[in-house]
Amino acid sequence: MLYRLIVSGLVSGAIAGIVATVFHLLLVEPLIFAAEQFEGQEPAVAAAAAEVPHAHANGLTHAHTGGGALHAHKTTANTPEAGDTVHIHEDGSTHVHEPWEPADGVQRSGLTLVANILIGIAYGTLLATALTLYGHGITLQQGAIWGIAGYLCFNFLPALGLPPEVPGAAAADLFPRQVWWLATAFVSALGLALLAFGNLQIWKPLGLILLITPHVFGAPHATAGAVGTAPPELASHFVVTTLFSGAMMWLALGIAMAYMLQRIDARQTATQPVT
Known about the structure:
Layout: H1 2-36, E1 51-55, E2 61-65, E3 85-88, E4 94-97, H2 106-134, H3 140-161, H4 174-197, H5 203-217, H6 232-271
Antiparallel strand pairs: 1-2, 3-4
């Protein structure tokens, strides 16, 4: 049983990770590149007609439209940003170390592939465990249904409260978002299981209640007035393409899992001694 779980999880997860990477590179990554062009810029702010000139400590003088407009300035190439490390030398000079980021191209795409394969293997192991507990053989069509169920639990239903966020989007703190996402994924899986396999009449209404509960409490969001840098059209397109890519990954995972389990079960049956 352990061999069945590990091999099916590894192989189907790797296949799903490759599929996810293909759709990510084709559909999602161009939107990420576009959103990154807006990072570091100020959100659009409604301005009044008057221009208000002012000067900064470095001697730079310019004007803004609208006296109360919020703004930020980068005076030098070495101005630190969030996450940067600033070193101060004995002579008083400073320099900034920016956090490491993968270079665009092969390095970034390669790391995306590795990350997606690891995520696919993790999801594949969960799916293999669920199918082992299910205790019945499945066809490729049933594997696709199991994949759709996984997509609902880990992608679609959590995205109703916390949609995928394009770089530069306004968002709440990371920790409460992670807690809400994990809780939503867990209760969604439990709710779908009760709807699909609950024998008593009470289980199905309870399953529906579990699906709704996280959204009744609501997901954590950015504070009122927070504005992201990416245009709304780009952000909405990112949500759609990310959810579509996730659906393709889960379909591939479910079908590959069903195929692997069929092959492993057939091989084990063929090697068993005839009594």
